[in-house]
Amino acid sequence: MKKSVLRLLATTLIFAIIIGAIVACIGWLLRWHSTTQFSNALFWPGAILIGFGLLSVMGGYRNRSSFGVLYSQSAGDMSMRERTQRWVTDATQGYSTFIFLCLTGGFLVGMAILIGSIL
Question: 54: burial class by Cβ within 10 Å (0-12, 13-18, 19+)?
């Protein structure tokens, strides 16, 4: 458990650093000179990633709570145990995407705050 959490944090931090490097390259090409420009440019991708994370959870909830989906799963050949495992897998996948995108967005927003306030 501890290793998977550390791996998740490391992966999200690396992803945020890559996005930050892309933003820095864009700023260098556009010749940004103030830290406010860099701070704003880091904030918006972070906010967008958090928004996509929330949308992924909402879409997964809508899929799980749909009567048509539940009815079609009950008409199949699966046992109750297999259907429950399928439901847990679908729910976990949606929340893992949410956690990954929100952590990455949080790191980007944190970098934006640090750049805006410290530099």
Answer: middle
